[in-house]
Amino acid sequence: MRTALLTALVACKTAEPEVPTEGTLDLLTYNVQGLPDPLTESDRLNVDRMNAIAPLLDAFDIVGLQEDFDASNHALLTDPASHDVKEWFSAPVDESRAYGAGLALLSRAAEVGYVETHYAQCNGVFDGASDCLASKGFQRLSVQLGAHVVDLINTHHEAGGGPEDDAARRSQVLEVIAAIDANPDHAVIFMGDTNLRPSDPEDVDELALYADAGLRDACVELDCAEPDHIDRFLIRDAPGIALSVDDWRNEDPTFRFPEGDPMSDHPPISITLSWQAE
What we know:
By secondary structure, the chain is of the alpha+beta class. Helix content is 22%, strand content 31%.
């Protein structure tokens, strides 16, 4: 009897925890307009805006931030956050750039890998939206959902509307797709400031490239009321795991000061996403 009891106790202590097979996540993508105060065209100082944004980020399991350039602003934004994972892509591509990549990812899902990539192309220093002042690129944070790995991609694509901007943006889209396709067993959640609008004929081809790569637009998936935002979520399933969008929201009413002015020049976009092992 005693031997049987000891065996049962040992079995209880050594049993593997049950691996979840489904779950739900709330995600946010937000361009926080983190340029130096004189360049923001905002009546609010960065310190006030970042301190106002910071406590609102905890409502989301995964957060992708863009234009998070400055170390002190970044600390104001992310130090209070309760997320276990905090990755900041701040490095400039070389000494010629005034700013780094300005991308941050926060996650409550466990990190299993992380890669930062600078884009090979940009256009304009003092023209063409001045993209080459920054070191644009993308983050790829691999997280564990149950028995599966999901790649979180956060980026800020080329701005500007000239032919050179379009060419640089297309090159960047192709770089992201190549990185995604290199890990076909990973599901994908892509987020960021894409600078791509379905209503702009010049952007249709780039959005089609993402669609042709199997990435589904969260807004389109739900036939949302505001499909023309440049801040977007795209998702892709992988063998053994399916992603679905339950809700798409423009969080602008929440991310405003009491006086009514917005905390950034971009609306914060969020989704609720479900995942299920198949």
